[in-house]
Amino acid sequence: MSRPSIRDRAWAAALVAPLVLFLVLFFVWPLWTMVTASVVDDAVTKVLPRTAAAMAQWDGNDLPPPAVQTAFAEDLRSAEDQQALGEAVRRLNSAVSGFRTLLSRTVTAAREAADLASLDLAAIDRRWSDPRFWRAIRDAVPPYTDRNLLAALDLKRDASGNITAEDPGTAANRVIMLRTFVIAGTVTLVCALIGLPYAMLAASASGLVRALLLLAVLLPLWTSLLVRTAAWFILLQQEGLINDALMAIGLIDGPLPLIFNRLGVIIAMTHVLLPFMVLPIYSVLIAVPRNLMPAAASLGAGPLRAFWRVLLPLAMPGLMSGCLLVFMVAIGYYITPALVGGANDQMISSVIAFYALGTANWGMAGALGLILLAVTLLLYVVYGRLSRSPQLPGGA
Amino acid sequence: MGAFIAFKNVTKKFGALTVVDNLDLEIAKGEFVSLLGPSGSGKTTLLMMLAGFERPTSGEIFLDGKPITHLPPHRRQMGMVFQNYALFPHMTVAENVAFPLEMQRVPRAEIVRRVERALDMVRLGALKDRKPSQLSGGQQQRVALTRALVFEPDVILMDEPLGALDKQLREHMQLEIRDLHRRLGLTIVFVTHDQSEALTMSDRIAVFNAGKIEQIDTPQMVYDRPRTRFVAEFIGETNLVAGKVVDAGGERAVVRVGDAALSVCGNVQPGRDVSLSLRPERIRLGSTPAAANALPVTVADCIYHGDHMRLVLKSGSLELVARAERLAGDWPVGTEAVASFDPQDCTVLAS
Ligand SMILES: Nc1ncnc2c1ncn2[C@@H]1O[C@H](COP(=O)(O)OP(=O)(O)OP(=O)(O)O)[C@@H](O)[C@H]1O
Ligand SMILES: [Mg+2]
């Protein structure tokens, strides 16, 4: 073999270029945007660059020195971009209300003033003699913030900059995040309990039976998520098929509450995610030599012990990938809980959707997304470690 | 006499296909019996019924006098060695061998001791912490064998255990298994379609054909006194010669083949048409007419085989294959000669 020439290398690079371009455009870039959205907070800096620089001279007590006030007035006078100004006002107003009127009045005064150095802000508006407003500006000028990330975890910084818990009245994210993990964990467990025997059955069957079994799990994958969820809607409702059938055979007297609660969410999500459990286990099991179970039996192992000692350890890599896959997909679920869940079954994605679509708070949406991403990556690393340990076959 | 393993009228059908046909077979304790036959003759099926993985369609199987036909495999105390070994890939060699002992709930300390002793016996002690994938084919084979032996089962079943090994290793393992059989007094049922393997290893060989046992005998008897044409042709090489019985009495008969009257072994009625089985290496070739059992022949072909020559001989319309040692001289094509044999080396087969 000769070393590849530059021409060959160029060819190879050209061949992977579309892939790289695709990844950058649709994966790296959005991810980067999300990360930056959650930590960048430059609405105020952009409009008040001189103020931001001058703020270093102020210790935060009493009122800022005249140099800061002058820099501030200069910034306001030279603020041309109305939209940027509006955003800065919105940002400041969300910290201390009253900024909207305060700033518009001050901007007008700053534009009309002849000599900015002698301009007395407190005379324009009495609020400028209140350090609270100045402190809000000082807190808002650094271009990066951990405010969103902390808020995503129900934390905040108090007046002196220490991290404290959000007051319980407004704190909801931790509860929702915990709920997300509980629902995803339950769905993973149920999928494993159904998926493992199912994959074993499919792997031991042959011909038409195997094809039908696999088709039955794959079919949902080929149907739209919305359609599937809507179908559960019909099946699970009060006068739905399941309740009607259970009442018809006399098992229950009144209809069971199957929808708009946790049970409905778990049933529908399990159905949707089952293929992600069955397929990895199946692919591992069909590679297991057929005569291992007979061998175990001839060595004195009953069916249960043969399963426990031979088949389960061999199926473990598939089971682990299945669980990881289901859990990671499940924690991002949005439509299914929204349609068949109740108010107390909404997951973290619905909070993200609320921030992103409802209030256009991209910072919070990004921060919550980042936390979701961190959990997923963590799980992935743990899985990588586990699958490389010598206990599992295929990891050597 | 109380056979250790007994099949009584066992039939196995898969749908319309009869794979084992009303078969009787008895195996004594400590015996090494080979099941030999062409592909599809039902050897594996018979072994699977003995191990409990298949149920007979009809008939009964007995172990030590007790019917085991409906006993599940894990209660049968039979160690099985599969063709591709069936070692557990996620366990080490030692764990594989310990498996059957753990299933019998043998105390931990004793397991360790017995596994060690068993692995030392097959010289695998040094490899006990390896995974099966890190072993050679022969080593895997020995682990499979050890695993089947270690729990001291009543019977060891082997389904073409040496099929995947190369010739040299196969011959080595044949001797090793034979040696273990002798030393431990094991009862072994061994499936093979390699006749030389069956001949070297077995106490008795059961020759299968289409779900029936054609003959069950010691290796010598199966080779020297084949009972049927199928057995004579399946085991070794033979010349089949058609003739008519002209005289018979006791175990001897005189059969007319062409112009010659040959005296042979076998219990037949005079006047019947029969086949004679004559092994190539039992044909003596000479230049002077012998007194008895001689046929005048011409050498039609001579094929060099290293340690011996294969000669194709013609006598009228009859064609015989003979095997000549190198020392017995040269037989160029076209040589006129006389082929003769001893009466006990030629068997009459009912045709
Ligand atoms: N589970 C089964 N279902 C249907 N037919 C079967 C089954 N098992 C075996 N057979 C058929 O039974 C016949 C005998 O099979 P068996 O495996 O016993 O042969 P064998 O003597 O072991 O052959 P080989 O030397 O090739 O291993 C074959 O024709 C086979 O196709
Ligand atoms: Mg077979």
From TrEMBL, chain A:
Its main location: membrane. It is a multi-pass membrane protein. It comes from the Bacteria. Coiled coil: none annotated. It is found in: Cell membrane. Keywords: Cell membrane, Membrane, Transmembrane, Transmembrane helix, Transport. Residues 177-383 form the ABC transmembrane type-1 domain. SUPFAM superfamilies: MetI-like. It holds the Pfam family BPD_transp_1. One of its GO terms (biological process) is transmembrane transport. The chain crosses the membrane at residues 12-32, 176-199, 211-235, 263-289, 310-335, 355-383. GO terms for cellular component: plasma membrane. PROSITE patterns: ABC_TM1. InterPro entries: MetI-like (IPR000515), MetI-like_sf (IPR035906). Belongs to the binding-protein-dependent transport system permease family. CysTW subfamily. This is Putative spermidine/putrescine transport system permease protein. It comes from Chelatococcus composti. The lineage of its organism: Bacteria, Pseudomonadati, Pseudomonadota, Alphaproteobacteria, Hyphomicrobiales.
From TrEMBL, chain B:
It comes from the Bacteria. Residues 5-235 form the ABC transporter domain. It catalyses: ATP + H2O + polyamine-[polyamine-binding protein]Side 1 = ADP + phosphate + polyamineSide 2 + [polyamine-binding protein]Side 1. Keywords: ATP-binding, Cell membrane, Membrane, Nucleotide-binding, Translocase, Transport. PROSITE patterns: ABC_TRANSPORTER_2. Signal peptide: none annotated. It is an enzyme of class 7 (translocase). One of its GO terms (molecular function) is ATP hydrolysis activity. GO terms for cellular component: ATP-binding cassette (ABC) transporter complex. The keyword RNA-binding does not apply. Part of the ABC transporter complex PotABCD involved in spermidine/putrescine import. Responsible for energy coupling to the transport system. Belongs to the ABC transporter superfamily. Spermidine/putrescine importer (TC 3.A.1.11.1) family. This is Spermidine/putrescine import ATP-binding protein PotA. The lineage of its organism: Bacteria, Pseudomonadati, Pseudomonadota, Alphaproteobacteria, Hyphomicrobiales. The gene is potA.
